[in-house]
Design goal:
- By secondary structure, the chain is an all-alpha fold.
- It has one domain.
- The protein is built from three helices and no strands.
- The protein is elongated.
- Keywords: Membrane, Transmembrane, Transmembrane helix.
- InterPro entries: TMEM107.
């Protein structure tokens, strides 16, 4: 492992964990996807999977929940559909 990977892996873990905790406070069911995404990303790094697998992991466990969260935030703060 090079020097960049030494710092990027803990940084990615810290960002993912922080985001997981933030989402856990908001909505429980979405945070399960984030948790599983963090687990699969860890396996991806540790087992040196093919790089194409990462996009599947990111799409299922990061992009989909992020879009759902964005929709929830838009409903709360822009459309005032859900009272906060």
């Amino acid at each position: 492992m090079g020097r960049a990977e030494t710092y990027l892996i803990p940084a990615r873990f810290a960002i993912t964990t922080g985001h997981l905790l933030a989402v856990l406070v908001l909505y429980y069911h979405i945070s399960v996807l984030h948790f599983l995404g963090a687990i699969y990303t860890s396996w991806f790094v540790l087992n040196s999977w093919n790089y194409e697998m990462y996009w599947k992991i990111a799409g299922i466990f990061s992009i989909v929940p992020a879009l759902v969260e964005l929709g929830i935030l838009l409903n709360i703060f822009v459309f005032r559909a859900i009272p906060y």
